[in-house]
Amino acid sequence: MESGWTGGRGGGGTCVAAVVVVFRGVTERPMTCRTTATTAGPRPMAVKGATVKDLIEALQIFAKYIPDVATPTSCDHDVLYVDCDPDLVDPNDEERLRELSFLVNEEWGCFMSFRFGSY
Fold first, then answer.
1. With contact defined as beta carbons under 8 Å apart, do 60 and 96 qualify?
2. How far apart are CA 34 and CA 106, in angstroms?
3. How far is the C-alpha of 31 from the C-alpha of 81, rounded, in Å?
4. Could you give the dihedral angle defined by the CA atoms of residues 90, 93, 98 and 99, in that order, rounded to the nearest 10 degrees?
5. d(CA 75, CA 73)
6. How confident is the model at residue 110, as a pLDDT?
7. Bridge partner residues of 110 (DSSP)
8. What is the pTM of this model?
9. How does pLDDT run across 24-43, given as a tens digit for each residue?
10. C-alpha closest to that of 77 among 30, 118, 112, 49
11. How, if at all, do strands 73-76 and 110-113 pair?
12. What is the DSSP annotation of 71-103?
């Protein structure tokens, strides 16, 4: 996994991550996820100290948009994937998920987090 941040401290830059993963039947496919910070605050991938409360809050948001399925998540190469269609998520919820370090993967139509991966 390679990751980086372009832009100044406290937001306003672009978070870039490139990983090779196996997800949704796609094997060893490179993918890039980009998000642009819209508010001042910690960089999405620089947040330290993943807490259970933050993860539970994110999962409660996702629960509003994911049908009751057996496997809504996947974890691979230190990345947690949530099989939730970003197009269905309310913009306010998407912003909160971004604050909780869940980025939109536009290529695969899901969310991903480097904060709650398998370190």
1. no
2. 9
3. 13
4. 160
5. 7
6. 97
7. 105
8. 0.60
9. 444 444 444 444 444 334 44
10. 118
11. unpaired
12. --EEEETTEEEE---GGGS-HHHHHHHHHTT-E
Quickly tell me which residue has 């993963």 as its tokens: 21
Structure tokens at 34: 């980009």
Query: Cα 5 vs. chain centroid, distance in angstroms?
Result: 15
Q: What angle do CA 2, 65, 40 make, to 5 degrees?
A: 50
- Strands in 110-113's sheet, in edge-to-edge order, are 73-76, 79-82, 110-113, 103-105
Tokens of 102: 């869940």
Closest CA to 15 of 77, 105, 82, 84: 105
